[in-house]
Amino acid sequence: MADLNRVVAHFTDGKLLKGTTQDFFPNRPRFHLQPAVGGMPVEVRCRTLKALFFVKEFAGNANRRDLRGFLNSPGETAQGKKLAVRFKDGELLCGYSLSYTPDREGFFMFPSDSGSNNLRIYVIVAATVEVKAGPSADALAQKALDTRPE
User: Fold this and answer.
1) Cβ–Cβ contacts within 10 Å for residue 4, how many?
2) What is the DSSP letter of 23?
3) Is-contact 96 110, C-beta < 8 A?
4) Residues forming beta bridges with residue 123, ordered by sequence position
5) What is the largest CA-CA distance in the chain?
6) Which end is more exposed in the chain, N or C (fewer Cβ atoms within 10 Å of the end residue's Cβ)?
7) Which long-range contacts (CB under 8 A, 24 or more apart) does 94-101 make?
8) Secondary structure of residue 27 in the 3-state scheme
9) pLDDT tens digits for 37-52?
10) Which DSSP string do the residues of 103-116 spell out, in sequence order?
11) Torsion angle, CA of 43/47/50/54, rounded to 10 degrees?
C-alpha cells in the first residue's frame, strides 16, 4: 500500500485544495486527493496545477515567517542543485532539486528553508516564468527580494 501524503494543491487559477493522496506519481497526468475537510475524493489533473506542496501539517504556523532566498546556502546539497523558481503569478520558490530538467513537465524540489512546513514541492513547469540554477538562482532570488513590496 502506498504512503499517505499530506498535500496542498495550488492550482493555476489560484484555488487551493488541502488533503491526502496515495496515488500521486510525477509521470502520471492525474491523481486523487481526499479533501482534508472530508467528502468524496477529487480527481486532480496535473496540467491544472501550479505546484503540489507536500506538507508536515495542513495548518502550518501562522506566526512563522518563511525565510526567503538562500541565505548564503551552498550551491549543491544532498537534496540537489540550488534552484530559484518564479511562477506566472509572481511567487518565488527557492530550494534544491535533483530532478530538474527544462524538458520535463514537472520536477520535485526541496525548500531552502529547512524550517518550512513544506517537505518537498512538485513544480509544474508550464506554471513557471523562469527557473534558474546555481549562481543564476542566487541572482533571481536576490532580484526578487530587492523588488518586493514592503
Assistant:
1) 10
2) -
3) yes
4) 51, 107
5) 47
6) C
7) 94/68, 94/69, 94/70, 94/137, 94/141, 95/121, 100/131, 100/133
8) coil
9) 989 999 999 999 999 9
10) TSSEEEEEES-TTS
11) 50
What is this structure's pTM?
Answer: 0.86
Q: In the block, which residue shows the cell 535533483?
A: 98
R_g of the chain computed on alpha carbons: 15
| Residue whose entry in the numeric block shows the C-alpha cell 502550518 | 60
pLDDT digits (tens, 9 = 90+) for 43-77: 999 999 999 999 998 876 666 555 555 555 555 66
Paired strand residues for 94: 84
CB-based contacts of 67, cutoff 8 Å, min separation 6? 112, 113, 115
With residue 145 as reference, give the H or E element that holds it.
helix 135-147
Alpha-carbon gap, residue 61 to 95, rounded angstroms: 20
What cell does 36 get? Answer: 482534508
The contacts of residue 56 (CB under 8 Å, 6+ apart) are 6, 117, 118, 119
Q: Which residue has the cell 497526468?
A: 29
